[in-house]
Amino acid sequence: MHPVWTHPVRPHPAAIAELPVYVIRKWSVRHARLLERIYAGVERALLMAAPVINRIGHERLEKPVAAVEKTVKGVLFDCQMCGQCALSSTGMSCPMNCPKSIRNGPCGGVRADGYCEVKPAMRCVWVEGWQGAQRMKNGGDIATVQVAIDHRLKGSSSWLRVVREQTAAIEERSDA
Ligand code: SF4
Predict the structure, then answer these.
(1) Fewest C-beta atoms under 10 Å: which of 13, 25, 83, 135?
(2) Ligand 1: nearest atom to the Cα of 86
(3) Which residues are near ligand 1 (CB < 6 Å)?
(4) Range of the domain at 115
(5) Any bridge partners for residue 51, and if so which?
(6) Number of independent structural domains in the chain
């Protein structure tokens, strides 16, 4: 048995399992396919609105869009606003809830029953993610190696970043 299991102050899994934020996180993973569809719709809507967004200016929109993103994703995923959203590649389980902030997981410390070695009362976010990925159409993306996180982007909107990246890609294609 892992030594932490016998520690007297180890929180009971039920303690964390009842936290609303944790319950909703788990719901999101269970409904990863539905959220994948919604996410794709949001992305399409953002790209359709890209000309307007670009005209208004990303700097001007950053604060209000980031506030909306933080609220929506905070409720659904316990989002930590890393600015480089990976949810579509992580089974709708936010990797930033991993105590080690691992972007490619799970780590070698995950317990045999799927719980975290650092927070023993919490299911490993990557074990959850692999389960969520099984439900998704593009769940195979979880096998793609994620690049290291750029902490300078913390707090910024991933939604606006998608618009910038897609706009640049379209311009690049039209220049070619
Ligand atoms: S990956 Fe980043 S942006 Fe996406 S939900 Fe997690 S903290 Fe938020």
Answers:
(1) 13
(2) 1
(3) 73, 77, 79-82, 85-87, 94-96, 158
(4) 12-175
(5) none
(6) 1
Q: Which structure tokens are listed for 99?
A: 């105590």
Q: Is residue 7 part of a domain?
A: no
Residue 114 lies in a domain: yes
Give Cα separations from 58 to 6, 61, 63, 70, 167 (angstroms).
51, 5, 9, 17, 12
Gap between the Cα atoms of 172 and 154, Å rounded: 27
Inside any domain, residue 152 = yes
The pTM of this model reads 0.86
Helix (H, G, I), strand (E, B) or coil at 137: coil
Q: Which two tokens mark 127?
A: 């074990």
In a domain, 6, yes or no: no
State pLDDT tens for residues 116-169: 999 999 999 999 999 999 999 999 999 999 999 999 999 999 999 999 998 898
Residue 8 alpha carbon to ligand 1 centre in Å: 33
The rounded distance, in Å, linking the Cα atoms of 114 and 110 is: 6
d(CA 137, CA 125): 20
